[in-house]
């Protein structure tokens, strides 16, 4: 996975301070994670290469005269009557070249990411957020009040995942304001400020449902985790 290059030490401090401030008013624990990319999407080149093969095959089937003219052009204009075996061999060779070329071109990560469907990216970001939540926050607090704010830079997507005690009281759509405030800052190129804004909004929700008590320790790290 690509490492984030846009988060400065100052932005780390901004997010960490926001977490510490938010947790002054709640027994909830906020974990922040920012990643360069959530998945490599290695299957995307294969899908597009297969699609290109079928498209080429369809063109040959629908426009056989065009394909024969193309073959004649590549052979210097000489007419040749191909046997079925020769014809099939040429087609299979061309399909193989098409498959290899598309897969090679999509080996370039920015293009591969751009051609990955949005629904697939959303699913992978969500899956990574859940996995990170399980290892960083789930069931790691006494009151089951951990919440993860996850930002994946390459996909331009974020997720908020909460532990069971929070999920029982807070509907997922409540986090919409935190996501919206984060996006405003992200569009301005301020990823750290975006995370801090989300932290403040999440903190307000947690303070409402899980107000601070004197016997609640700081159970999870406040610092921004950068992957």
TrEMBL record:
Q: Which UniProt keywords apply?
A: Membrane, Transmembrane, Transmembrane helix
* Pfam families to which the protein is assigned, alphabetical: TPM_phosphatase
Q: Where's the TPM domain?
A: 144-204
Q: Which domain of life is it from?
A: Bacteria
| TM regions (residue ranges) | 46-67, 87-106
The record ties this protein, via InterPro entries, to:
TPM_dom (IPR007621)
Name under which the protein is recorded: TPM domain-containing protein
Upper lineage is: Bacteria, Pseudomonadati, Pseudomonadota, Alphaproteobacteria, Sphingomonadales
């Amino acid at each position: 996975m690509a490492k984030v290059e846009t988060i400065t030490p100052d932005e780390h401090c901004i997010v960490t301070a926001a977490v510490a401030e938010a947790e002054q008013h709640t027994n909830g624990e906020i974990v922040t994670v920012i990643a360069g990319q959530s998945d490599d999407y290695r299957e995307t080149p294969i899908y597009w290469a297969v699609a290109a093969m079928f498209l080429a095959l369809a063109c040959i089937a629908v426009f056989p005269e065009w394909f024969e003219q193309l073959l004649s052009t590549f052979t210097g204009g000489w007419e040749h009557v191909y046997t079925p075996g020769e014809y099939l061999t040429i087609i299979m060779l061309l399909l193989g070249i098409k498959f290899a070329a598309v897969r090679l071109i999509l080996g370039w990560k920015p293009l591969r990411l751009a051609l990955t469907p949005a629904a697939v990216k959303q699913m992978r970001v969500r899956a990574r957020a859940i996995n990170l939540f399980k290892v960083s926050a789930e069931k790691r607090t006494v009151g089951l009040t951990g919440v993860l704010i996850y930002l994946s830079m390459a996909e331009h997507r974020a997720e908020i995942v909460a532990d069971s005690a929070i999920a029982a009281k807070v509907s997922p759509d409540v986090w919409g304001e935190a996501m919206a405030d984060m996006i405003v800052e992200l569009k301005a190129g301020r990823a750290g400020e975006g995370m801090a804004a989300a932290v403040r909004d999440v903190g307000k929700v947690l303070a409402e449902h899980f107000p601070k008590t004197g016997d609640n320790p700081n159970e999870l790290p406040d610092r921004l985790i950068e992957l």
